[in-house]
Design brief:
single chain; 330 residues; alpha+beta; seven-stranded mixed sheet; four-stranded antiparallel sheet; 12 helices
């Protein structure tokens, strides 16, 4: 089938990175999604953006989705200069939930499927890591589950862990944006040996706890001295939430990525979910920060692809009609 007669829909999970001590190395896919549809256009590039989370995103060829797709086509040795792209996202921008990573991974997956999937997942992961600058968020969105990753500036490697079915994720999303660049500028250029050893030990412990299902160790394992103490000043209430969340039913708590979203890991059968949610929201509210709470689960899958070909592709309903039963309207 000619790729000009094909339309691809990619559903891509959001992600949370670091999980406390695993700075730029640990990521987990979560059940909040973006949808990217892509096809060849005969009438010039057209980009449709739906939903309030994509305000300000360009709708011309400077759009990230378009540019990433062209990287795939170049590597695959094909030329498709004009595309029809439609996107809806439940993932808020610049909140620490991997919005840019999901866009990159969704664009890579959709463009690759559009031309017959010549690139394997590892190649998509390498491209995504190079574009994002670190492998944790993109690794989680590519492979799903929990990803332990490394990158030396040339090649990214990863090991995927299957998340426990008993694990839930509570996120409190403050009503303000925090760029990754600003959050990184809050970090020192050097760290003392004691802090480095502390984080290596906690990150190793966290990986072991998640791999073995030893949830009782998560509180200790999610402690961090490398990034969260320096970013706390950017998010009033954060320090208290990290210190006290376990006393309100959390297994452990952390800043999600660069923030400002805060997350708590919780056992799904916990009777203290409402108490924990109230604690997070009230703590932020006491600092004058309105926030939204969402209960999520680890997402075991990376991009889910739907490929439609031939006459059926020309007869597809608009994107929002096809996904309206799935969207969360975050």
């Amino acid at each position: 089938m000619n790729h000009s007669e094909r339309r691809v829909l990619a559903k891509v999970p959001a992600s949370t990175a670091n999980l406390g001590p695993g700075f730029d190395t640990l990521g987990m896919a979560v059940s909040l999604y973006a949808w990217i549809e892509m096809g060849v256009s005969d009438t010039g590039t057209a980009i449709e953006l739906h939903g309030g989370n994509l305000g300000g995103v360009p709708t011309d060829k400077s759009n990230l989705i378009y540019k990433v797709a062209q990287l795939v086509f170049e590597e695959a040795g094909v030329r498709i200069p004009e595309l029809h792209i439609a996107m809806y996202s439940d993932i808020p921008l610049t909140r620490g939930l991997g919005s840019s990573a999901s866009a990159i991974v969704g664009a890579l997956a959709a463009a690759n499927a559009l031309v017959g999937s010549p690139l394997d997942d590892d190649r998509l992961f390498q491209i995504a890591t190079r574009l994002e600058g670190h492998p944790d968020n993109v690794g989680a969105s590519v492979f799903g589950g929990i990803v332990v990753a490394s990158w030396d500036g040339t090649r990214a490697d990863h090991i995927r862990l299957e998340p426990s079915p008993d694990l839930e994720v509570l996120v409190a999303i403050p009503d303000f944006q925090l760029s990754t660049e600003k959050a990184r500028h809050a970090l020192p250029g050097r760290f003392g040996m004691a802090d480095v050893v502390f984080n290596v030990s906690r990150s190793s412990l966290l990986v072991a706890a998640l791999a073995t299902g030893n949830h009782g160790m998560i509180k200790t394992a999610m402690q961090d001295r490398v990034h969260q103490p320096y970013r706390a000043a950017l998010i009033p209430g954060m320090a208290r939430i990290l210190d006290e969340a376990a006393g309100h039913g959390a297994l452990g708590a952390a800043l999600s990525g660069a923030g400002p979203t805060l997350l708590a890991l919780v056992e799904s059968g916990s009777p203290r979910k409402r108490e924990l949610e109230r604690f997070l929201l009230d703590t932020l509210a006491a600092e004058g920060i309105p926030a939204k709470a969402l209960w999520l689960r680890p997402s075991a899958a990376g991009p889910e692809l739907t490929v439609t070909e031939g006459a059926a592709a020309a007869q597809l309903a608009p994107l929002m009609e096809r996904i309206k039963g799935e969207v969360r309207a975050c």
